[in-house]
Write a structure and sequence with these properties.
It is a single chain. This protein is an alpha/beta fold and about 325 residues long. The protein is about 35% helix and about 15% strand. Strands 1, 2, 3, 4, 5, 8, 9, 10, 11 and 12 form a ten-stranded mixed beta sheet that branches. Helix 3 packs parallel to helix 4. The protein is globular and about 80 Å long.
Length: about 325
């Protein structure tokens, strides 16, 4: 045995203090972006059946939600509007209305919680009667005709006080159209958080319950990416960087951590991982059945996203994670 030669890696794992001393990856509250669903109406707090612990909130319940968010030390939220079916139309005009749900919620938050960063999801699908992310004609989603509507939506959100515009539609040229629209309207300092690498994923299922935005025909495979493709992501991200994106989102996150790392290695912009609804629901469902340790699983998952290269994480676990981070102090 005296002749054995090997490295003693366990020396650096010998105690909690030693492990903390050499820890390489850290999750902070500042890394978390909390999604909020704003629904039209009054006195509404609907728990989303497929996303336990996540709610559709009417405007009069938003203040209490934001008080909790601020008290937990979460510094960023992303807003999604959930209009009534009868308020939807073919071109999603509610998305760029001065009194749209995201616009009104943004003004409320920036007035009462000015320190909170408000990110506005910029898409049409929640507001269109057909549930697609652009103009539809003859069963086809029209790319170029949709760009003006997306730019108008972004401008209206910036006018309302949004700190960041986050276009999620996956139309070709959406970043350059929105950047030009914002600049022409005098919002050249408003950054764009582009859903640059957005796959057509089954993990979005619960979100469609939350946002009431499932397509009324077909699917989104003609504009969202094929889950089997990697090189395509580089082309998408390169275009968005050239067109003026300031952040790059990879969505979903958990099954696409290779893409998070690829984007981090290839671009100098902040990388955002979207820990999507299906990922949330699988963990919540298993935790409610007592099959897993929810806190341990969530913190390991979020740390893994940071280790993969995410600078920021959009997650429905933001409030839980913030509480657990406090417990670790």
């Amino acid at each position: 045995m005296k002749d054995l030669q090997f490295n003693r890696h366990r020396r650096l794992r010998s105690s909690a203090g030693m492990r903390a001393l050499v820890r390489e990856t850290f999750l902070r509250k500042e890394d978390l972006i909390y999604p909020i669903f704003i629904i039209d109406g009054e006195n509404i707090k609907n728990e989303i059946s497929s996303m336990p612990g996540v709610y559709q909130l009417s405007m009069d319940n938003l203040h209490a939600e934001m008080e909790e968010v601020a008290a937990l030390g979460i510094q960023s939220v992303i807003l999604f509007g959930v209009p009534h079916e009868h308020d939807k139309d073919e071109t999603g005009t509610g998305a760029f209305s001065h009194n749209g749900l995201v616009q009104v919620a943004t003004r409320l938050i920036k007035k009462e919680f000015p320190e909170i960063i408000v990110i506005a999801d910029t898409c049409l699908c929640e507001y269109t009667s057909h549930g697609h992310c652009g103009v539809v004609e003859g069963g086809k989603i029209l790319n170029d005709e949709s760009l003006d509507l997306l730019a108008r939506t972004a401008i209206s959100q910036a006018e309302a006080g949004a700190d960041i515009i986050a276009p999620s539609n996956m139309m070709d040229g959406f970043v350059t159209a929105i950047r030009a629209g914002l600049d022409e309207a005098g919002y050249e300092d408003i950054p764009i958080m582009s859903y640059a690498v957005k796959y057509s994923s089954a993990f979005y299922g619960p979100f469609r319950d939350a946002a009431n935005g499932a397509p009324q025909f077909g699917d989104r495979k003609t504009y969202q990416m094929d889950p089997a493709n990697r090189l395509e992501a580089f082309r998408e991200a390169e275009s968005d960087v050239e067109e003026g994106a300031d952040f790059l989102i990879v969505k979903p996150a958990l099954s696409y951590l290779d893409m998070v790392r690829d984007m981090k290695n290839s671009f100098t912009l902040p990388i955002v991982a979207y820990n999507v609804s299906g990922e949330y629901s699988m963990i919540k469902g298993a935790a409610l059945n007592g099959w897993i340790d929810e806190k341990a699983i969530v913190m390991e998952m979020l740390t893994g996203m940071k280790r993969a290269g995410a600078d920021l994480i959009i997650t429905y676990f933001s409030k839980d994670a913030a509480r657990w981070l406090d417990e670790e102090k």
